[in-house]
């Protein structure tokens, strides 16, 4: 294991005592705040079991976090979702979904073309044929929107129906993305300081450094 996560758990938990802890976004907001708490790390056996049921090996930086820092809790925005075992009814869906390659750019192109082709009432002779055509269009729209996040794991909520994704399969594996479908912008890579892609560790450690500056500031 690399030293990427050495001391990170201790740094996060120490922020609970910082004078400006409550000023960090996402720490306290009803039941959604993470309070700088972390779940216990997973054991290697627990992590392997979680991967086996999903049918994938998770990206190395995220694996290291789960093993050394925690299986969810404090993190960017409203914190990291806990990594849970899918229930028995969803095992097949979860494993197949994550095994497919994450390819948002290609799917967004298909979605753009699909939206242009939405059936119009004036192009159909009556309401019944229009509704039938629109039903078929709706089904394809749902299918494409499901494909947009295939191969990615939802790891965090930003609030207001925005989410953070971790690419698990495909050429973008290990990078983090914004799910901003709520405002019609699809799925976009998270960019910082001129970087077109951020890995999970860059995203999390960048948040931690900013949180420490905010929480320990003496004159803020």
Question: Topology of this structure?
Answer:
Layout: H1 8-14, H2 44-54, H3 60-68, H4 91-99, H5 104-116, H6 127-148, E1 152-159, E2 162-167, E3 176-179, E4 187-189, H7 200-216
Antiparallel strand pairs: 1-2, 2-3, 3-4
Walkthrough of the structure:
- This protein has helices at 8-14, 44-54, 60-68, 91-99, 104-116, 127-148, 200-216; strands spanning 152-159, 162-167, 176-179, 187-189.
- The protein is α+β, with helices and mostly antiparallel strands and 220 residues long.
- A four-stranded antiparallel sheet has the order 1-2-3-4, covered by helices on one side.
- Helix 5 packs antiparallel against helix 6 (127-148).
- It starts with 7 loop residues before the first helix and ends with a helix.
What does the main sheet amount to?
4 strands, antiparallel
What shape does the CA trace take?
Answer: elongated
The proportion of residues in beta strands is: 5-15%
Average pLDDT level: 91
């Amino acid at each position: 294991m690399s030293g990427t996560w050495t001391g990170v758990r201790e740094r996060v938990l120490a922020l609970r005592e910082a004078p400006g802890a409550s000023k960090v976004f996402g720490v306290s907001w009803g039941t959604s705040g993470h309070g700088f708490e972390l779940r216990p790390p997973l054991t290697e056996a627990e992590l392997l079991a979680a991967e086996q049921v999903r049918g994938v090996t998770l990206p190395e930086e995220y694996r290291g976090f789960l093993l050394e820092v925690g299986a969810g809790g404090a993190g960017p925005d409203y914190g990291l979702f806990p990594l849970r075992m899918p229930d028995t009814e969803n095992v097949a869906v979860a494993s197949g979904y994550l095994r497919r390659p994450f390819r948002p750019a290609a799917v967004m192109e298909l979605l753009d073309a699909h939206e242009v082709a939405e059936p119009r009432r004036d192009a159909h002779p009556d309401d019944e044929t229009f509704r039938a055509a629109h039903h078929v269009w709706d089904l394809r729209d749902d299918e494409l929107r499901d494909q947009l996040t295939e191969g990615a794991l939802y790891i965090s909520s930003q609030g207001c129906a925005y989410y953070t994704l971790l690419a698990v399969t495909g050429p973008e594996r290990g990078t983090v993305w914004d799910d901003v479908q709520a405002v019609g912008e699809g799925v976009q890579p998270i960019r910082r300081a001129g970087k077109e892609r951020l890995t999970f560790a860059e995203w999390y450690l960048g948040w931690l450094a900013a949180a420490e500056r905010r929480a320990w500031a003496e004159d803020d």
